[in-house]
Amino acid sequence: MAYSRKNYLLKVKAVCELYDQMRNPDVPMARTYRRVIYPSFYISICTFYRYLNVNYKKELRELAEKQQPENPRQYTLF
């Protein structure tokens, strides 16, 4: 299976949105990771912190702009 930046960014988005929903200012990030993130995604805490630092909204927008054809009336096969 080929690596896809879009799939990576969608996973980052899912992790970040779940963290934002379950985040509580009184609870440390590590506890939220252990109780919510790890059972759902099985990623390490280092990966979790890396995901939180990714600007996935900007990168997904840039990928969508790249996929737009220059001439919308011209279709491509591949």
Describe this structure in words.
The protein has helices at 5-22, 29-41, 45-52, 56-67. 65% of the residues lie in helices and 0% in strands. The protein is elongated, with a radius of gyration of 17 Å. By secondary structure, the protein is mainly α. The longest helix has 18 residues, at 5-22. The protein contains four helices and no strands. The mean pLDDT is 89. It has one domain (5-63).
Rg from Cα: 17 Å
Helix vs. strand class: mainly alpha
Overall number of structural domains:
1
The fraction of residues in strands falls at under 5%
Q: In angstroms, what separates the terminal alpha carbons?
A: 18 Å
Helix proportion: 55-70%
Number of DSSP helical runs: 4
Beta strands, count: 0
Write the topology of this structure:
Layout lengths: L4 H18 L6 H13 L3 H8 L3 H12 L11
What descriptors fit this protein?
78 residues, mainly alpha
Give a concise summary:
The protein has 78 residues and is mainly α.
